[in-house]
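Propose amino acids for all 245 sites.
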C-alpha cells in the first residue's frame, strides 16, 4: 500500500473551528452480530506483517458513518468499540472531523490536550505521553478517536515517524468479559501489557500486544456506563504501553 494515500485522504478536508467538549455521556448502542452474517466485512483495517494499517478507501465519512463497527481482525469476528487515527497536527485532526458532521457524527470529546484538559484529578502521565485528542461518535454507536502530537519528538510523533500516518496505534474490541476474551487473544499470541486489567468500577480495559508490536485493547462496559473513557484507566494503559518497550 502506498503510505502517502491515507495522508492525502486526511488532508483533503476543509478547516473549521468548534467548541471544546469533554467527557460527554452518551447512549452507546449494543453491538451484536445477526444470526447469519456475511463472511466478508469491508474494513478500515489492513493487516500487514502482524500490524494494522488504515485502508484509505474506508476512512471516509461516507463509509465510517454507515459502518456497523463489525469486522474481522486476525481471523476473529469482533465488534469494534473504538480505534485511533493519528494526524501530524491538531489543525489537520480538526479538519478531518468537520467532514463527518453532515453525516450524523457527533463530537463527544475534545478537541483538547490530554490529560490536562480532560481529567480534573491529578493523573500521573509523563508529558511525553500527552497528546491532542478528539473523539467522534458514529451513528452505529462506534467511536473514532483522533490524536496528534502535542510537541515535536513526543511519543505520538515518534510513533508517526516510525510507522507512518497510516498506522493504527490500537483498536479497542468491545467484549462482555475482558478476562475471557483475553484468553482468546493470548492464543493468537497477543500478550497482556499489564498483570491485570484496569478496572474503574464501570469500565474494564486491557492492552495486549503481539510480537510485531500491534496493540489491541479489550474493553468491557458496565450497564449504565456511557463515558468514553476513565482517566485512571487510560493513564494506566498508556503507562503499561511504555513499560513494555
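Proposal:
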Amino acid at each position: 500500500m502506498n503510505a502517502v494515500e491515507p495522508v492525502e485522504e486526511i488532508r483533503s478536508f476543509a478547516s473549521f473551528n468548534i467548541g471544546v467538549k469533554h467527557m460527554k455521556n452518551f447512549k452507546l448502542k449494543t453491538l451484536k452480530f445477526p444470526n447469519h452474517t456475511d463472511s466478508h466485512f469491508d474494513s478500515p483495517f489492513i493487516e500487514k506483517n502482524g500490524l494494522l494499517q488504515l485502508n484509505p478507501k474506508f476512512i471516509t465519512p461516507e463509509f465510517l458513518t454507515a459502518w456497523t463497527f463489525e469486522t474481522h481482525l486476525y481471523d476473529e469476528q469482533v465488534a469494534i468499540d473504538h480505534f485511533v487515527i493519528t494526524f501530524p497536527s491538531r489543525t489537520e485532526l480538526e479538519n478531518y472531523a468537520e467532514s463527518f458532521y453532515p453525516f450524523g457524527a457527533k463530537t463527544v470529546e475534545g478537541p483538547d490536550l490530554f490529560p490536562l484538559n480532560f481529567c480534573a484529578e491529578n493523573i500521573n502521565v509523563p508529558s511525553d505521553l500527552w497528546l491532542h485528542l478528539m473523539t467522534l461518535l458514529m451513528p452505529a454507536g462506534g467511536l473514532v478517536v483522533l490524536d496528534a502530537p502535542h510537541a515535536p519528538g513526543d511519543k505520538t510523533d515518534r510513533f508517526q515517524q516510525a510507522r507512518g500516518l497510516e498506522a493504527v496505534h490500537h483498536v479497542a474490541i468491545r467484549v462482555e468479559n475482558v478476562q475471557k476474551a483475553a484468553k482468546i487473544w493470548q492464543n493468537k499470541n497477543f500478550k497482556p501489557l499489564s498483570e491485570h486489567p484496569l478496572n474503574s468500577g464501570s469500565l474494564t480495559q486491557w492492552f495486549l500486544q503481539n510480537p510485531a508490536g500491534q496493540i489491541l485493547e479489550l474493553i468491557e462496559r458496565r450497564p449504565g456506563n456511557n463515558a468514553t473513557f476513565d482517566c485512571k484507566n487510560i493513564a494506566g494503559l498508556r503507562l503499561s504501553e511504555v513499560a513494555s518497550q
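Residues 231-243 form the longest helix (13 residues). The CA atoms of residues 125 and 235 lie 6 Å apart.
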